[in-house]
Amino acid sequence: MKSSCLHYHFETIGSTNTWAKENVDQIDPEGVTLISASEQTLGRGRFKRRWQSPINLNIYATFCFYIDSNRSDFGHLPQLLALAAIQVLEDLNFHPALKWPNDILLNGKKVAGILCETMMLEQKRYMINGIGLNVNMPTELLNKIDRPATSLFKERGHEFDLNILLKQLDVKFTSYLSHFLKHGFDAFFPSFQLRSTFKQGQFIQFNHNQTLLEGIFESLHPDGSVQIKLLDGTSKKFYSGEFMFEDFI
């Protein structure tokens, strides 16, 4: 895959992910369909949080495609999109970090988030991989976000071409996806591990099912899970949850 087979762009939309779910009949059944927007009025992230989506400032995009319903490794797809976005940023000489499971940080502040959703349609799994990347968002708007956030503009001091960045992300993700569908996530895991914000032995706070846990970060696993040694001495593996921002600012 060189880039998405279909690309729908909207000036204003509720949410690119929502459009992808409500317009399945317009999605390419064989390749990747990209949905993008200049503005989202109902943008959302993980845990149903609102994603600030002002017009003509950032990238709001969703990559849609079908995979075999028997594949058990589809949970890696948001991480794959995160790695593609990280590579695009590294090509611009940024130094992003990955906050498990798939948030992207610059200088300890969130610059991009990913929301992956899935639906079973007939005998295939329909994947909806959404990303919001703060590109030209100014400080006054970033300050309205309830968590530490940044943008490429704030970090570098000049604006970036949204169309060029989106094209680069499209090409990178579809290339990664093609390799993943043939060979799995193993080839990507070292890169995922290397860019992780947390290092072995680091004290962390972790929100799991609305419960705040504290402990020591032990490792990431190739299956996408994280190993944490809790304060009571038990070592547990988690497939979902959220590291608290205060740990690494």
TrEMBL record:
Keywords: Ligase. GO terms for cellular component: cytoplasm. One of its GO terms (molecular function) is biotin--[biotin carboxyl-carrier protein] ligase activity. Residues 1-181 form the BPL/LPL catalytic domain. PROSITE patterns: BPL_LPL_CATALYTIC. InterPro entries: aa-tRNA-synth_II/BPL/LPL, Biotin_CoA_COase_ligase, BPL_LPL_catalytic. This is BPL/LPL catalytic domain-containing protein.
